[in-house]
Design a protein that fits this description.
CATH topology of the largest domain: Rossmann fold
Strand order of the largest sheet: 10-9-8-11-12-14-13
Oligomer: single chain
Number of strands: 14
Strand content: 25-35%
Structural class: alpha/beta
CATH class of the largest domain: Alpha Beta
Distance between the termini: 56 Å
CATH architecture of the largest domain: 3-Layer(aba) Sandwich
Helix content: 25-40%
Largest sheet: 7 strands, mixed
Radius of gyration: 23 Å
Length: 323
């Protein structure tokens, strides 16, 4: 599909008002570009691998809306029609007395393919200790050929391993995995932690996730990395409160890992002992600084001994041993 992007130069003060007025005029799915720093709560709620580079806040903002350009439509006429309509929205919004700034409108044409290829502009290979994470459009350099290599491309739903929380989990998994390890990965997403565990020698992985999109994502990443799909069992559903998921997941795991969020880890933790062997390890991450105590307290209440807490940036990883 082809799209017309109408980008409005405005101020951060006027973002919410302008988006509301655009929505009322029939423009949905607005995109905001500004330089406002994210709060810790916003970072936790976003929980994505590649956070935006915000720069210094100068009070300016760009608000974009998109209009589909269908086959046979006159692009010039459509640009003129919607530019005039958006100009009317801006003029009406000025009546509220809020500084809308420049208010100029620029129009560009884009395609779905551009959204996909835009990843290539800022996602490049990187290392986590001696692990190389590399996208399909880049080549392994000679000096990196002795590293373990994880092939993965960024997607719209799940992560790539770039996020600090994922890296914290990877480092902890490497401490405990052996050739007999049976791993439970709660909130598996793209399957990175489970796939790496198999690459590090684990015997089997069971992953759970709420999002059915995890099924093709995990399958694709298993194939890219030449990992035996028969060793990775994926269950869609909520292990916290779904008896069918709990039963299918079963027990006798050596390690459970959950890279989610603190407010999910706390209610999840009492369920994990039902699936672990005595002495089993529970690795938790996705914990913003300041919330690690809540997770540690939940672990202790569920019968775990907290054995390690590690940090990277503003994120924390809490590890417990059952019993």
């Amino acid at each position: 599909m082809r799209w017309l992007q109408f980008k409005i130069k405005t101020t951060t003060e006027a973002e919410d008002l302008l988006i509301s007025e655009l929505y009322d005029a029939g423009y949905e799915g607005a995109q905001i570009e500004d330089h406002i720093q994210l709060t810790p709560l916003e970072k936790e709620q976003m929980f994505v691998d590649i956070l935006p580079e915000t720069g210094e806040d100068d009070g300016t903002a760009l608000v974009s809306v998109f209009v589909e350009l269908k086959d046979g439509e006159d692009a010039v006429a459509l640009k003129k029609e919607h530019t005039n309509a958006i100009r009317s929205v801006i003029d009406a919004a000025r009546e509220y007395g809020i500084d809308l700034g420049d208010g100029s409108i620029s129009v560009t044409e884009t395609e779905d393919l551009d959204w996909i290829n835009n990843w290539k502009n800022f996602f490049h290979q990187f290392t986590i200790d001696d692990l190389l994470v590399i996208p399909s459009w880049e080549e392994v350099q000679p000096e990196d050929r002795d590293k373990m290599i994880l092939h993965i491309d960024p997607g719209t739903a799940f992560g790539t391993g770039m996020h600090e929380t994922t890296q914290l989990c990877i480092r902890q998994l490497r401490k405990y995995i052996n050739k007999e390890t049976k791993l439970l990965d709660v909130g598996t997403g793209s399957g990175i932690l489970g796939i790496l565990s198999l690459m590090y020698g684990a015997a089997s992985v069971t992953g759970t996730d709420l999002d059915p999109c995890a099924v093709p994502a995990v399958a694709d990443n298993l194939a890219k990395n030449g990992v035996d799909a028969g060793k990775f069992h994926l269950i869609i559903g909520n292990i916290i409160d779904d008896p069918a998921v709990q039963e299918e997941a079963g027990g006798d795991y050596d390690i459970a890992v959950a890279n989610i969020l603190a407010n999910v880890l706390v209610p999840l933790t009492p369920e994990i002992p039902k699936h672990l062997k005595p002495g089993g390890i529970f690795i938790t991450s996705g914990i913003i600084e300041g919330k690690e105590t809540e997770v540690a307290d939940a672990m202790r209440a569920a019968g775990f001994t907290v054995i390690d807490t590690t940090a990277q940036g503003e994120w924390r990883c809490v590890v417990g041993r059952l019993g």
